[in-house]
Design goal:
Strand order of the largest sheet: 3-2-5-6
Order of helices and strands: HEEEEEEEH
Largest sheet: 4 strands, antiparallel
Structural class: alpha+beta
Number of helices: 2
Helix content: 10-25%
Number of domains: 1
CATH architecture: Sandwich
CATH superfamily: Immunoglobulins
């Protein structure tokens, strides 16, 4: 019985420590005009490795919100998927909340 109590206390301590561990999160909110219904993605495209999609959403009401965990700072790409074309913008993936704003002229240019 004593061993069971000690094991339960250790398990509770481990769960509490894990719950307090900081979550390293990258959050990107964006405002874009004229892109409703299109997909936007965060893509990690390292040289010599396969492309990894970190997050994908559909733009609604001219807005989007992408998030992913951050293991280390690295360059990723914000990719707007159009019919047969993709427009991409390099971003630094690091912990924090960031905002992307663009009008239709910038995205079409």
């Amino acid at each position: 019985m004593t061993h069971l109590l000690i094991c339960m206390l250790l398990l509770a301590a481990l769960l509490l420590a894990a719950a307090k561990a900081p979550l390293k999160l990258f959050l990107l909110t964006g405002n874009v005009c004229g892109r409703n219904g299109q997909r936007v993605s965060l893509i990690d495209d390292k040289v010599g490795q396969s492309r990894q999609v970190l997050s994908t959403v559909t733009i609604q009401n001219d807005q989007f919100r992408l998030s992913c965990n951050v293991e280390q700072k690295t360059t990723v790409y914000l990719v707007f998927h159009e019919e047969k074309e993709r427009k991409s913008y390099p971003l630094m993936l690091k912990e924090g909340h960031f905002n992307f704003c663009a009008d239709e002229d910038i995205l079409n240019g």
